[in-house]
Every structure is written in C-alpha cells, then in structure tokens.
Write a structure and sequence with these properties.
By secondary structure, the protein is α/β, with parallel strands linked by helices. The protein is about 35% helix and about 25% strand. Bound molecules: adenosine-5'-triphosphate and magnesium ion.
C-alpha cells in the first residue's frame, strides 16, 4: 500500500476519569522520519504512545497505520504492523535471565514446540552487542543488573523485532553518558536503515541530535511543531520553557511553528 506517513493520529481524545490526558491530538510520523516528542511531565506523551501501540483505546479519533484506519489497536496488531514500544515503565521479568527477557513473548521454538535456547542466547548476545551491552553474560538474572543495563535490555528487545517504527519512551533517563551515546547511535542506525522512530526525552540535548522534527505536547494538546533545521538546541529549550510558563511559543519563533497556520485558522 502506498502511504506517506507510517503512523498518523486524527483528533485523538483520551480521558482518565475527569482527567483529559489528550485532546484532539493530530500527530504523525513520516516514513524514515525521527520525531522528537517533548513536553512537560503529564503532558500526555506516554498516553499517546500507548494509544499508538494499542495498550489504550482512544475515546475519540482514529489511528492510521501505513494508510490503514483503526478505531483502536492492540499490542499484537501493532507488532504485526511493524510498531514496537519501549516503555518508560519497566516491563522486564526480574527473575528471568537477560536472553529470556530479550525474547519475551516472541520465543523461538522448533517444530515440536521446544525452545531454541542456544539460538536465542546467540541472537540476544548479538543484539546486546550492538548496544555494547556485553559486560554481563546473557544468562545473568535481570534483577542483578543496574538500572541503565536493564534499560539497554529493553531496547535490545526492540532491536530484535526489526520494527518499522520504534517508539522509545524516555530511553535515556537512567543511562550513563556512554550508554546514552549508544542509544543515540542506535537511533541513527534506524534512520540509515530507512526506519522511523519516535524519541521521547526530557533532555533536549539527547533528543536534539537525532530528531528530524520536534512535536511539543502541553497538557494534552499539540502546541507546536518545528523542523530541527529551524532551531538550535537553545532555541528549543527557550520554547519549552516559555510553553511551560505561559502556554505559548515566543513570538520570535512563531514563524517556524508548523502549526501556526492551522492555529490562526482555528
Ligand atoms: N492509567 C492512568 N490512569 C489515570 N490517569 C492517567 C493514567 N495514565 C496517565 N494518566 C494521566 O494522564 C496525563 C498524561 O500522562 P502521561 O503519562 O501520558 O504524561 P507524560 O507526558 O508521559 O508525562 P511524563 O513526562 O511524566 O512521563 C497525566 O495527567 C496522568 O496523570
Ligand atoms: Mg511519560
């Protein structure tokens, strides 16, 4: 099927009781585009990602994946469509070894249904090596790993799926400087391989180098979008501070805001 965007949301609204987590959100990710999704705590970033990955159903709106429309997705369907979400929350099984976690829910089995343990260990090692996570043997129980290492294991899982769209929700929070660089290299490799990525981070200096475009969410709404070429990291930082304080983009940057024309029509 011919499509321009790998994922698009149209007028997505999501409520949790009285809390409106997302309000009429139009968001899209192009083919081979890296989108930096930024915004304050509670802006709705993770909720939007969980809707795209099918963990939550939206109250209103629709999700379009590769040109196909959905009222809601399920994680299984999202996988099938080539989407993977690396959660902000931990989703590892602490009492299982690393390799088992890398393959969780996608175990390799032979024709008789037995686990192909040797193959899985080898493949897990290869993927972990891509992130230079080889310090701990793949047999190590996850609970003995550092926070950063655990995060790396979660990312390896995404690597394994060769997804078309990889969503990384705060992948760098607990990482050391060297580990952050590996994650950023991984995102660059996704780009080189023609894949797409949504990268969520509170740290502008992590998201800036890898993103092609930034989308800023504030209190459940998309308030601004910019191409990286129009901003320096400091510009982006100024914009974010202004949005947090006043809810709006400083005047001098309005000409670059890709939402500007839509807003003035509204
Ligand atoms: N399962 C839930 N039940 C009730 N309220 C929720 C739930 N998930 C999120 N919310 C609320 O929805 C809003 C958006 O939360 P969300 O986690 O999407 O924000 P976020 O942008 O990812 O924030 P952070 O940067 O802190 O991760 C918040 O007000 C949050 O409290
Ligand atoms: Mg979040």
């Amino acid at each position: 099927m011919n499509y321009e965007y790998i994922v698009e949301t149209r007028n997505i609204t999501k409520r949790f009781g009285n809390v409106v987590a997302l309000k009429n959100v139009n968001f899209r990710v192009g083919k081979n585009e890296i989108v930096g999704l930024v915004g304050d705590n509670g802006a709705g970033k993770s909720t939007l990602m969980k809707i795209i990955f099918g963990i939550y159903a939206p109250d209103e709106g629709e999700i379009i994946v590769k040109g196909m429309k959905f009222k809601r997705l399920t994680p299984r369907k999202a996988y099938e469509l080539g989407i993977i979400l690396v959660h902000q929350e931990r989703t590892l099984c602490e009492n299982h070894p690393i390799w088992r976690n890398v393959f969780m829910g996608r175990e390799l089995t032979n024709r008789l249904g037995f686990l192909k343990i040797k193959d899985m260990k080898e493949l897990a090692y290869k993927r972990l090596a891509e992130l230079a996570l080889t310090k701990m043997p793949v047999d190590t129980t996850v609970k003995y790993l550092s926070g950063g290492y655990k995060q790396g294991v979660q990312i390896s899982r995404a690597l394994l799926f060769e997804a078309d769209l990889v969503i990384l929700d705060e992948p760098t929070v607990q990482l050391s400087l060297a580990e952050v660089h590996r994650v950023l290299d991984y995102v660059r490799r996704l780009k080189q391989r023609g894949k797409s990525c949504i990268f969520i981070s509170h740290n502008i200096y992590h998201v800036y180098p890898v993103a092609d475009r930034f989308v800023i969410l504030d209190r459940g709404r998309v308030v601004a979008e910019f191409y990286k070429k129009d901003l320096t990291p400091d510009d982006l930082s100024n914009i974010m501070i202004s949005i947090a304080r006043t809810g709006s983009v400083p005047q001098e940057y309005m000409k670059y805001n890709l939402l500007q024309s839509k807003q003035s029509q509204a």
